[in-house]
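tool=predict chain=A
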Amino acid sequence: MDVPPQSPLYRSIQKDRYSRQEKIVEIENLTGRKLIVYITNMRHPLAFINRDDIAPFADLLQNLENVDLDLLLQSPGGDIDIAEKIIYMCRNNSKSFRVIVPESAKSAATLITLGADSIVMGYTSELGPIDPQVTVTTASGKEMQRPAQSFLDGLEEIKRAVVEEGRLSPVYFPLLEHLDPALIDYCNKSIERSKTFAEKWLAKHMFKDNPDKAKTVAEKLADTKKYLSHGIVIDVNEATNEIGLKVEFISKTDELWQAIWRLYCDYLIDIAQRNVLKIFESKDISIPIAAQ
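tool=predict ok
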């Protein structure tokens, strides 16, 4: 492995990083493709995709151009606009693009996978619904993430109760005190934005010869009547057979999957032991972001 010269002490201090990068090279040798990694501490409340991710991604892609590119992705989701920018950045530096999901790519991270030519999954991999989350203020004044559709459904339930009872029950007063009409509009637009995002990128690449399928798949992933929980698991079988995504399934006995899983386990342990929020990595770049 070609790495910059290091003193023995420095390499010992950074031994976890170099061990991971050796595994990245191993995976690249197996696939014949370049690999970059974006992995987050799924237990941390600030692990979501946000604008601070752009600069580290730019570093990972700095020396890559017109390559066959794989992105190893582990994320709970986050900002949909930044997710789209990450797709643009990866696609602008690659001639083909795959996303490898070792364990979990949810919400806006699932949207990133839809910008790929295919998704690499194994028996531990999961995607999630793409219904957007919005920040709302609860009756106690606490800010919380809520599915946009659930917020709209809740308002419809209040309307239904008013019609049936002929009056507004006082129990709803604390909830409606925090009602911002602009939030209703924002929820509606966020839902439409998510579906439009999915259909756009699926039609550009994964289903570039089949726009009707791109639309159908986007609608399935955004179906809040089927997916009652935002965190529900969409495993490789459902992603492939029920939703119709283009998935490359790798058996757990496959040499490539075993190499991916070894690398993923290293990240799990290193993130926990070093209190890391995110790691952006390639065979020659390593950018850990410390948890606050």
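The radius of gyration is 21 Å. The CA atoms of residues 152 and 185 lie 10 Å apart.
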